[in-house]
Amino acid sequence: MQEQNAYYLNQIYSQNMQERQQTGRIRKCLTHTFGCQMNERDSEILFGFLEQMGYEKTDVEAEADLILFNTCCIREKAESKVLSQLGELKKLKQQKPDLIIGVCGCMMQQKGMADMVRVSAPHVDLIFGTHNLHHFPEYIYNLYQGKGKQIAIVDKEEAVQEGLPSYRDDRFRALVNIVYGCNNFCTYCIVPYVRGRERSRRQADIVQEVKDLVADGVVEITLLGQNVNSYGLDLADGTTFAGLLRELNEIEGLRRIRYMTSHPKDLTEELVKTIAESSKVVDHFHLPVQSGSTRVLGLMNRRYTKEDYLKRVELIRRYMPDAAITTDIIVGFPGETEEDFLETIDLVKQVKFDSAFTFIYSRRTGTPAARMEDPVTLDEKKERLQRLNDVLSQIGRGINDRLQDTVVEVLVEGPSKTNADMLTGRTTTNKTVIFAGDPSLIGQIVNVTVTEAQTWVLKGALAE
Ligand code: 5AD
Ligand code: SF4
Asked: Is the pLDDT of residue 321 over 80?
């Protein structure tokens, strides 16, 4: 694979450089990345390939010679956004016929979707799915060779690919895949159908990658998997997530280890203990609960009850009383009653989540939940979402208020998005802190006094 790719990459690079010499044209590329960090990571790999082809990055669509949509299909909203943005590109393609437009990622992996895009957006040159990302150089090569539209969707996942290139915008933080796919088949979720079964990377490969990143200046890594807690189980050689964390924790120069996402059913006492003992693993658990109703959890195939979840929370509080706990919640799952919803509110109040991502259930064709009766109206669901968010903000505010005037350790990430004169960073508990400071602090861990606690951010001042 790597040899083939090297050939394609070289050919494309030479052609681009020749063109640059002859005409001065520098080919530019742009990616619209939708959805989760897994997709962001995939886009870094695609950019890595593009860099090796001699492309430069741009944020301006009109300047781009190659535009890629890395799509998400977790909810309907993410899908409709892609389709409308794609439609808008028709004009640009007419003005610039050699513009390459590609669509890839989860949405293309769904049955019939690639065909739908092919027919409804004939200006698209390239369509591929999640399982053949590493064939990207070949598709671009074929387009350069004038072989016409490239459409490549494969149903079966291939072996885990190592040694792919990568392009990171952030010098100090990096995303690291540890396990691909998902075996859980929650009844509302499309992910197992588009990302395939769980495939873990070898621990040695992950450790080497992290060491290389640290040598390159990275201080914080985020380990990625749909369910990191089941990392290693498919390797059947004793590899576990806890073992991986223990080894990564020893890497000199690495300061923080984050991970996404954990399935509550696989959160064991051994793992919580390991996290508590590993100083670099952050004091933050993102533990999606989805619902507080045991009846709904059953329908969702989550394989835990409300009480099971509360026990996991107790475990966390026992070993790490100061850790933040955040979650994902779906309201309006098919047949969710007012009583079910009140169970969710009750759970939220018992756990006191620091924050949560909340969603209205979105029907995904092909999933078991899509065939369930759903008598609750959208207005009712919206009203439930509002009530839930109100409770969550009240709790979040209370937790942040208690941080007022305390000193927190912040890993400085960069200029604040809302005010470029300020810096932004995060605490180990994943709270965003905004404060004034010199840009030379970016990438360092500094002490900040919280001067103004708000509901979702903390304002502060450098403590030294
Ligand atoms: N509708 C609404 N939310 C969903 N999620 C996953 N599938 C759906 C769906 N069909 C949410 C879950 C998951 C998060 C990533 O997205 O809460 O944890
Ligand atoms: Fe979807 Fe459930 Fe797998 Fe998460 S664990 S990706 S919600 S099926």
From this structure: yes
Element (H, E) at 23: helix 2-23
Q: How far is the CA of 329 from the centre of ligand 1 (A)?
A: 8
Distance 189 CA to ligand 2 centre (A): 6
Residue 142 belongs to domain with CATH number: 3.40.50.280
Q: Residue 197, Cβ neighbours under 10 Å: how many?
A: 12
How does pLDDT run across 238-297, given as a tens digit for each residue? 999 999 999 999 999 999 999 999 999 999 999 999 999 999 999 999 999 999 999 999
- Give the mutation target among 74, 76, 300, 353 for probing the ligand 1 site: most ligand atoms within 8 A of CB: 74
Q: What is the number of the ligand closest to the CA of 369? A: 1
Say how many Å lie between the CA of residue 358 and the centre of ligand 1.
9
Distance from Cα 335 to the centre of ligand 1, integer Å: 16
Ligand nearest to the CA of 263: 2
pLDDT of 418 reads 86
Instruction: Provide the edge-to-edge strand list for the sheet that holds 220-224.
Output: 173-177, 220-224, 256-260
pTM of the model: 0.95
**Conformation bin of residue 121: beta by default, left when phi > 0, alpha when psi is -120 to 50:** beta
- Please say if the pLDDT value at position 135 is more than 90: yes
Which CATH number fits the domain that encloses residue 349? Answer: 3.80.30.20
Backbone angles phi, psi at 268, to 5 degrees: -95, 165
Residue closest via CA to ligand 1's atom 18 equals 328
Digit-coded pLDDT (tens) for 67-102 = 999 999 999 998 899 999 999 999 999 999 999 999
The SS3 call for residue 214 is helix
Sign of the Cα torsion 56, 60, 62, 68 reads: positive
* 226 CB near ligand 1 (under 6 Å): no
User: With 80 as the cut, is the pLDDT of residue 464 above it?
Assistant: no
Does residue 189's CB lie within 6 angstroms of at least one atom of ligand 2? yes
Number of folded domains in the chain? 3
Q: Which domain holds residue 77?
A: 2-152
pLDDT tens digits for range 384-410: 999 999 999 999 999 999 999 999 999
In a shared domain, residues 386 and 415: no
